[in-house]
Amino acid sequence: MTATTPTSNRDTATPGGTPALVVVAHGSRDPRALSTVRALLGRVRLLRPALPVHLGHIELNEPLLPDTLAALGGGEAVLVPLLLGRGYHVKRDIPDMAAASPARTRVAAPLGPHPLLVDALHARLTEAGWPTHPAPDHAVVLASAGSRDPESRADTSRTAALLAARLGAPVVPAYASAATPTVPEAVRTLRARGHRHVAVASCFTAPGRFATQCAAAAPWLASAPLGTHPSMARLLLHRYDETLMADGAMKRRALATP
Predict the structure, then answer these.
(1) How far, CA to CA in Å, does 252 sit from each of 45, 127, 247, 249?
(2) pLDDT tens across 23-36, in order?
(3) Burial category of 49 from C-beta neighbours within 10 Å (exposed 0-12, middle 13-18, buried 19 and up)
(4) In what order do the strands lie in the sheet with 104-107?
(5) What is the DSSP secondary structure assignment for residue 64, as one 8-state letter?
(6) Which residues, 6 or more positions from 5, have their beta carbon under 8 angstroms from its beta carbon?
(7) How far apart are CA 249 and CA 253, in angstroms?
(8) Under DSSP, is residue 204 helix (H, G, I), strand (E, B) or coil?
(9) pTM reported for the whole predicted model
């Protein structure tokens, strides 16, 4: 979605007119979440020093997204959700906040599903002790926040399938809230199928209540949240670039139409 309002551009773009990147985080009462997100943005800035990078939260933490967008004035920005699938926040909250702001904005796709997300999940599992060559009795529960939106669950299932192909082991999606199965239910299902070593892959961007709750249900090992893994920074920039490329293609088609 693109919201446009003509006004002056104030420190939102590079001298060449590059739109700013606004990373949109959910927000958390856990102070580790905010520090993790800020550190991740630091990695993004290191990868692309000339790009203006800003942070906005949907709730619970400052800066809130409407305040970040208000500070941009009428400049251009690409909003990249620091969220791992489609759902209400991606479909409604972020576009509505963008439309209400004076900034000229485009809203990117969420981070998942994508191979770079799977890179980060795989790396965190390996750090936690997942073997290079898993045995037939190894399996993984992919733990995510959960949503009532069927497209969100489809995205998590797709991420689980990509991770299973990478690991060479079964991966079952599970949820902390709003959807089933829960992590304990998924663990029981896998054990009933003969998988004695069941790991929990944390499909969360930062520490928080849900990530802690899901890790506590792991019968064997649990990976850390994705946090500042290099693939996460690369994925944020990929979604930014992808959005600008799609917008440019639409403009070229419009110009070519008689």
Answers:
(1) 30, 45, 9, 5
(2) 999 999 999 999 99
(3) exposed
(4) 2-3, 104-107, 76-81, 20-25, 53-57
(5) B
(6) 74, 101, 102, 103, 104
(7) 6
(8) coil
(9) 0.91
